[in-house]
Design a protein that fits this description.
mainly alpha, 6 helices, 3 strands
Amino acid sequence: MRKQDYVALAAFRRSLRKFLRFVEDGAIEAGLTPQQHQVLLAIQGQPERDWATVGELADFLQLKHHATVGLVDRCQSGGFVERTTDPIDRRVVRVSLTEKGDDVLARLTQRNLRELRALGRFTAELDALAPIDNA
């Protein structure tokens, strides 16, 4: 590895952490915890549907099932999500956004995308790295 590779990787890591801090601060300003914001994003980010199971959320967040249930409980108490039973398989509980959850997620996402575009250095910093040796 070259010195410039370490410098580029450190700069990328710093930019990534700055962005994550920006996202976390935005969530707090919007009345959510950063993990609650991640729940909303995980639900809305499901391909081809607008709901998720607790198991899918646990996988997305890399949390244990019981911790995810508690997080969903807090999101529901805040009025950001609702639970419904799947009409086909009554064992499945769907977690979906409420109008309030959808509104706050849309505002945060617009804010975060503006910041991400402003931090376009990510690509330049990664491009500066030496090719990876596949050995």
